[in-house]
Amino acid sequence: MTVAKFVQIRRDLHQIPEPGFQEVKTQRYLLDYLSTLPAERLEVRTWRTGILVKVHGTDPKRMLAWRADMDGLPITEETTYSFRSTHPGYMHACGHDLHMAIALGILSHFVYSPIEDDLLFLFQPAEEGPGGAQPMLASEEFAAWRPDAIFALHIAPEYPVGTIAIRPGVLFANTSELFVELTGQGGHAAYPHKANDMVVAASHLVTQLQTIVARNVDPLDSAVITIGRIEGGTRQNIIAEKARIEGTIRTMSMEAMTRVKERIESLVRGIEYGFSCQAAIDYGCSYCQVYNDPVLTDQFMQWARKQDDIRLVECSAAMTGEDFGYFLAEIPGFLFWLGAETPYGLHHAKIEPSEKAIDVAIRLVTSYFTWISSQR
Where are the alpha helices (DSSP H) in the chain? Predict the structure, then answer.
């Protein structure tokens, strides 16, 4: 099959972005494509809106897995594409359309040109939230086909096509959402002594939260607390009874994440006492770090440096989050960045990743899987 086929698949998928665990059209599209492949070479199982595909090897002694995420984002698209999203308010702004097309390209290659090892392809829903990796990992379907090693990629707008970036150890951070609801006594703006203002309470809390990283996290570790949204009040002359802050926590170690959450809870208790209010904390969706197996990653990097058409970069760790980390916490493997060369970043309404990256990734991964299977 030519790469043009998978470019078109990417464009088809780009038009039907869906939120986590609602990827019904996406699942149907993928299943329809899989049904065109020789049935004797593969087995297909579904899990919620995800799909697991086993491609049979010629002399299997282990199973290697490749994961692609499926969901879109609640973003209104502003690209110049002729194949823009047909789902208002949703967009594939994180490259999952490319990820799926690449996975199908790799899968199709090995259906027609099998290697010795069995291969498992995971089309995983809900990476952007509420998190599909952890429940898929715990599913009966996954347990029946549990792989010996697992791999994935993520497009990187900042790298040119033909470049991949990776590092052993921590690649992506531990992440957690943060939501705090404050409830007090509202009232008339002219009588502040008869109320306790939750806008003021929330403002104090936001300021206090900024001291945690500076004064409670080891300076040789790394952490970020960002408050991206504050909501409170109804009119300019009404003292707010409720306020809500929304943000994110990102750390390079689980110890730092634990410490940050302990300090948040302590500060929130102080706000309750100081402003005579009640508070509720919700950490929402949390992802563990993406930790690349050092042995497999070093082996891959040595192999990739010998490939004439690939430029390998040993990159720094990033504060981005990825629920692929849950797979890597239990199964050795790695994730790498794939250069996709676009001026707009991930989750941007104007991002237009280079489709040339699809061919690069399919050729790279099929060659790597063929090589690693021969190293048994």
Answer: 3-14, 24-34, 96-112, 133-137, 140-144, 198-216, 254-275, 294-305, 325-330, 356-373
